[in-house]
């Protein structure tokens, strides 16, 4: 079961509110139940991990990206599962044919906003674009798959909204805190919700490792930015 979680953030930079649906960490799982939670948004943000590196599977994730891009403007940035597939380059080529905007250390204009996708340039072929991105005028939205990457590399950057996933909500949540996250290990700090009043972390729409999720349903986000 997936739930819809809504947030509102204020920038004071926009003439009207923009509503974004966020699907992170789908992990090649079925997605037909997502449409009622996505339709009606101004755009869909997909901050990585539509595939499953454990099973080396990708076709359902690709279909989701293709179907979503025919429904509404869709922006995708790289996740660690995509980066660790055996055929990453071929996968990226297929993604670019879906009509979704594939943003790997790149950015595009969308209405009054700039939307970019960042992945640690040590692990990808694209150079870091943050110096140019943060210098752009107006409101800036950044897709960054790993919350811990934001904390380590991007926290001081001039960005209005950062959308992340990766942590799966901490898998099991007790006292409103996750128990484990890849990259943050046991009792992680950044697993779900709002950090610094601008990074919004999704608990993820999928569960690739098969471990139980307790008090932590899979989710889709709906973020209103004004």
Task: Describe, in plain words, how this protein is organized in 3D.
The chain is 19% helix and 29% strand. The longest helix is centred in the first third of the chain and has 13 residues, at 59-71. It has helices spanning 35-38, 59-71, 80-83, 88-95, 130-134, 147-154; strands at residues 2-9, 18-22, 43-46, 74-76, 101-102, 106-110, 113-118, 139-144, 161-164, 173-174, 177-178, 180-181, 185-186, 193-195, 199-201, 218-225. A six-stranded mixed beta sheet has the order 1-16-2-3-4-5, covered by helices on one side. Strand 8 (139-144), helix 6 and strand 9 (161-164) form a beta-alpha-beta unit. With 226 residues, the protein is an alpha/beta fold. It is globular and about 45 Å long. The protein is built from six helices and 16 strands. It has a single domain, classed as Purple Acid Phosphatase, chain A, domain 2.
- Overall domain count: 1
The main pleated sheet reads as: 6 strands, mixed
Structural class category: alpha/beta
Shape: globular
Please tally the β strands and state the result: 16
End-to-end distance? 30 Å
Contiguous helical run count? 6
Seen as an oligomer or otherwise, the chain set is single chain
Mean residue pLDDT = 95
Low-confidence stretches: none
Under the CATH scheme, which architecture would be assigned?
4-Layer Sandwich
Q: Identify the strand order in the major beta sheet.
A: 1-16-2-3-4-5
- Sheet-strand content, in percent, reads 25-35%
CATH class: Alpha Beta
Radius of gyration: 16 Å
What is the name of the CATH topology?
A: Purple Acid Phosphatase, chain A, domain 2
Helical fraction equals 10-25%
Helix-strand pattern:
EEHEHEHHEEEHEHEEEEEEEE
């Amino acid at each position: 079961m997936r739930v819809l979680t809504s947030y509102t953030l204020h920038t004071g930079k926009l003439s009207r509110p923009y509503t974004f649906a966020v699907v992170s960490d789908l992990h090649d799982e079925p997605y037909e139940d997502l449409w009622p939670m996505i339709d009606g948004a101004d755009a869909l943000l997909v901050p990585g991990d539509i595939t499953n590196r454990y099973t080396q599977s990708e076709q359902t994730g690709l279909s989701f990206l293709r179907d979503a891009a025919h429904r509404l403007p869709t922006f995708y940035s790289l996740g660690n599962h995509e980066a660790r597939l055996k055929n990453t380059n071929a996968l990226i080529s297929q993604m670019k044919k879906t009509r979704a905007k594939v943003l790997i250390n790149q950015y595009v204009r969308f209405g009054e906003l700039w939307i970019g996708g960042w992945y640690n340039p040590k692990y990808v072929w694209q150079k870091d674009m943050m110096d140019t991105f943060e210098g752009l005028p107006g409101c800036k939205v950044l897709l960054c798959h790993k919350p811990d990457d934001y904390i380590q590399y991007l926290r001081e950057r001039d960005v209005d909204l950062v959308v992340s996933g990766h942590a799966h909500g901490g898998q099991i949540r007790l006292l409103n805190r996750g128990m484990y996250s890849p990259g943050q290990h046991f009792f992680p700090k950044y697993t779900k919700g709002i950090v610094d009043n601008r990074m919004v972390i999704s608990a993820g729409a999928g569960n690739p490792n098969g471990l139980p999720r307790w008090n932590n349903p899979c989710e889709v986000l709906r973020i209103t930015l004004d």
